[in-house]
Design brief:
By secondary structure, the protein is mainly beta. Helix content is 9%, strand content 56%. It contains 1 helix and 12 strands, in the order ββββββββββββα. The strands form 2 sheets. Strands 1, 2, 3, 4, 5 and 6 form a 6-stranded antiparallel β-sheet that branches. The protein has a 6-stranded antiparallel barrel with strand order 7-8-9-12-11-10.
């Protein structure tokens, strides 16, 4: 659900974000998590009244106690996603990489060979977990720019910044990162 509005001291107004939005039950206490800007909030709330209001909105009790934390501007989460990186070099095949961390604006990857140079552009493809109970993944691809590179033992680690991605792919990456933070 998304926060649609606030009536200070009285209620929170929330709206379901899709077809699979949960049906809220009156008087049941819900543990909620909210991301806004660079802050993460955690609180308990309950449904006010018997159901939904106009435009599919729900009125929830204003929380008495709110725990909050500041998160990094572009929070990174640890991942274990296998991907492939393709450079624009003629006849070079895609190279398998490990996507070790991910943020809404970049990724940290590692490879068993030195494949990229700082400033170089490439295309990163990976299967991003959708977070559904069936363990499904969604194939996504983004154009990246290499921001840093270092060797650790036999592995080469690269910091990548997302340069080009569709709005849908950016939203899916952001949703994945926020879901990982909320689950922690």
């Amino acid at each position: 659900m998304d926060l649609a509005g606030v009536i200070p001291g009285e209620a929170l107004i929330a709206r379901g974000t899709g077809h699979e939005a949960p049906a809220l039950v009156s008087e049941m206490v819900y543990d909620a998590r909210l991301f806004t800007g660079t802050r993460f909030f955690r609180f308990s709330t309950r449904l006010l009244g018997e159901g939904s209001g106009p435009l599919g909105c729900h009125y929830l009790s204003y929380p008495e106690v709110v725990a909050q934390a500041i998160v990094r501007r572009h929070h990174r989460v640890q991942t274990a996603i296998t991907g492939k990186i393709r450079t624009n070099e003629y006849l070079r095949l895609p190279v398998a990489v490990n996507v070790e961390n991910l943020s809404a604006f970049g990724a940290g990857i590692s490879a068993g060979e030195d494949i990229l140079a700082v400033g170089q552009s490439a295309r990163l493809a990976m299967n991003l977990p959708t977070g559904t109970s069936d363990g499904a993944n969604r194939a996504i691809a983004v154009v990246v720019k290499v921001r840093n590179c270092r060797q650790e033992g036999i592995r080469f680690r690269y910091g990548l910044e997302f340069e080009q991605a569709s709005d849908e792919v950016r939203r899916e990456i952001k949703d994945y990162v926020l879901a990982c933070v909320a689950a922690a």
